[in-house]
Write a structure and sequence with these properties.
Blueprint: H1 11-30, H2 32-35, H3 51-54, H4 56-69, H5 76-100, H6 106-129, E1 135-137, E2 140-142, H7 144-177
Antiparallel strand pairs: 1-2
Helix pairs in contact: 1-4, 4-5, 5-6, 6-7
Length: 182
């Protein structure tokens, strides 16, 4: 349960949440060709690791942005609710883990975990609503769900780990050097 009183949010926190929501939604809506395919490279998912930097404002902002963006999803209400809950889980988990783990490489590990959470939840519900038949790869029969997982994992690694993690790490270093308090 999120114990964060929205009435006590600072203006900066509220502003960060609104900006992140707008950026997430705009990124998905502007790039539907890569946001709603089997290989989903949602550039907006690069914002997920920012939960490690901004905390709950990023959790709220990305969640609201996902809800707005998925209103345009061809996968309907399942993606609207499923994608929103998935990003809520991934960002909340990252925020909590970043607060509680402080070993070398912890943020990278958290970003990888975010990519895996998104992969398995989104890939599973997308397979349920848009099944892909099993296929043969290198002589092995591969279930259709694995194709969805592979597609979502590819996009999640690109956006969350290869783009989002370095952005979050760089932003955190900048904010620390500038003595910002989040």
């Amino acid at each position: 349960m999120i114990l964060y009183n929205v009435n006590n949010m600072r203006v900066r926190d509220l502003s960060a949440a609104i900006i992140l929501a707008a950026l997430y939604a705009a990124g998905v809506i502007a790039l539907p060709g890569i946001s709603f395919e089997i290989v989903q490279v949602r550039i907006s998912d690069a914002l997920l690791p920012l939960a490690m930097v901004f905390g709950l404002p990023a959790v709220f902002g990305v969640t609201v942005g996902t809800f707005i963006a998925n209103m345009f999803s061809p996968f309907g209400p399942v993606d609207l609710l499923g994608g929103t809950l998935t990003n809520l889980i991934a960002t909340y988990m990252a925020w909590k883990m970043a607060r509680n783990f402080s070993f070398r490489g912890s943020w990278l590990t958290i970003a990888i975990i975010q990519a895996l959470v998104v992969t398995f939840i989104v890939g599973t519900y997308l397979y349920a609503i848009a099944p892909i038949p099993s296929g043969v790869v290198l002589g092995f029969t591969v279930p259709g769900i694995v194709a969805w997982w592979a597609g979502v994992l590819t996009g999640s690694v690109v956006s969350i780990v290869l783009v989002g993690y370095p952005v979050a790490k760089g932003l955190a270093r900048y904010m620390e050097a500038e003595s910002w308090r989040v």
